Amino acid sequence: MKTRIFKTIFPVMAFMTAIFSAFAFSSVSATEADSLAPVMGHYKVNGICTPKIECQDDTETTACQFEGQNVYRKLSNTSCSSALWRKP
Question: What is the pLDDT of residues 6-48, one digit of tens each?
Fold first, then answer.
């Protein structure tokens, strides 16, 4: 009985592990970085988050800025505090 379970379950588990490993260890290449979705960068003007420039979420570039001010992701009308990064 044990060998029968082992013979049927082991190949399924090996296949699932191979699929998981293929997706878990892949990274974004430089050409794929251009296809990342743009995010509108905001900064506060009189307590209200105002949109200004397109940025991205990828942290491998420098901070996204508009006229010397860092811009952030809009969380609500009065809260824009999540950092964004410059598009390459």
Answer: 788 888 888 888 888 777 766 655 555 556 678 888 878 887 8
C-alpha gyration radius of the chain:
22
77-82 average pLDDT score: 78
C-beta of residue 88 within 8 angstroms of C-beta of residue 34: yes
Residue 88 in any domain: the answer is: no
For the chain, the distance separating the N- and C-terminal CA atoms, rounded to the nearest angstrom, is 59
Q: In terms of Cα–Cα distance, which of 68, 42, 46, 67 is closest to 55?
A: 42
Helix ranges (DSSP H) in the chain: 2-24, 30-33
Tally of domains within the chain: 1
pTM of the complete model: 0.50
Residue 23: inside a domain? yes
